[in-house]
Amino acid sequence: MNYERKVDVMDSLAGTQSFYEDADNSRRKRTFLIVALVLIALALVATWYAFTQSKGAADVEGQGAAAMPNVTVVIPGRVSVEAAISANGTIAARREMPVGVAGEGGQVVRVLVEPGQWVGAGQTLAVIDRSVQAQQAASLAASIRVAQADANLAQAELERAQALVGRGFISKADMDRKRATRDAANARVRVAQAQYGEATARNNRLNIVAPAAGLILTRQVEPGQIVGAGSGILFRMARGGEMEMLAQMAEADLARVQIGTRATVTPVGTTTQIAGQVWQKSPVINMDTRQGTVRIAVPYSDALRPGGFADARLIAGTAEAPLLPESAVQSGPEGNYVLIVDGKNMIKRQPVKVGEVTDNGVSIASGLTGNERVVALAGAFLNPGDKVKPVVQKSSQ
């Protein structure tokens, strides 16, 4: 009895152990299957991600290549450009003539000219009252007639005496006295004439006249004014209307200027350009400013005002330099610059120093060799580092 129960218990335990072993095997299979599925899923996700990334990069690269803008560039080379010097200074009369009182002076009766009026040599500018001097001249003119009458009488007496000499009525001594009387009378005539001429000359000098033909610049006299030798300058004239510009320039620029150098003068406040040339340059340099003066002769123009300010551009020879259109040169806080396209078709900023500005473009004094590809248009819309498609156009020479 006990034996049978023991066997049943053992069988029961054996069945239970087999059951648990089967359950463990089933869990291991499910776990392995799940892990395998997860790995397969991860592999699929990784494959898909790599594919989409490579495709996206290719799409981005294609879109970037398609989005690169076309940019017009110019290769300037080097051309002959006139080397100009800019200067400024004041306008003045080339030969200024101060006019004052030449005679004894008096009260001004009339002033016949105004500033800006052209006059001829010897033309009367102002009339001085001469009422007293006129009476003196009239008195001297009368004295000439008196002396002439005495001379005529002495001559007549001498002639009558000569007719009586042959008859013995007149002695030789009387003849000598009559000749002396006649000669003295003729001398008094000449003295009276000289005095009258002196008075006439003084009266003629009372009027203020132009010493030469030219342009009246200033007038410092009015009717009723008393003038004399100490009255100073009453009129200022520009002989022949000739003007000049006193241009101030640096010592280095002064050395490049020669007599006869062509110049263009532009008065401040106007657009008038007046052609002139250098006729004199200063032999000394101002020790304080380190500048010298160049005198540029210019013909008369209504735009020129003595004492006014003007700009000058002097042509001091030619030089070889790159020439760019004005649209290619830009300015910033650091100065002028251009945009160039390098070998990788990328935008690069290049500082430059601007030279002469001509009708054909802007010359570059330094910063370029002339072989660069310079952005000619739309530079304001580009930034350093941008990739572009350069389109080369012929430089305007």
Automatic annotation (TrEMBL):
Task: Report TM segments.
Answer: 32-51
Membrane among the record's keywords? yes
The record's section on InterPro entries has: Beta-barrel_RND_2, HH_YbhG-like, MdtA-like_C, RND_pump_MFP
Q: List the PANTHER family.
A: HLYD FAMILY OF SECRETION PROTEINS, MULTIDRUG RESISTANCE PROTEIN MDTA
The name this protein carries in UniProt is Secretion protein HlyD
What lineage, starting at the top, does this entry show? Bacteria, Pseudomonadati, Pseudomonadota, Alphaproteobacteria, Sphingomonadales
UniProt GO molecular function:
efflux transmembrane transporter activity
Domain Multidrug resistance protein MdtA-like C-terminal permuted SH3 positions: 323-375
Q: Where is the YbhG-like alpha-helical hairpin domain?
A: 132-209
UniProt record similarity statement: Belongs to the membrane fusion protein (MFP) (TC 8.A.1) family.
Listed A to Z, the keywords are: Membrane, Transmembrane, Transmembrane helix
Instruction: State a GO cellular component annotated for this protein.
Output: efflux pump complex
Q: Which residues form the signal peptide?
A: none
Recorded hits in Pfam families, A to Z, give: Beta-barrel_RND_2, HH_YBHG, RND-MFP_C
Q: Does the keyword Transmembrane apply?
A: yes
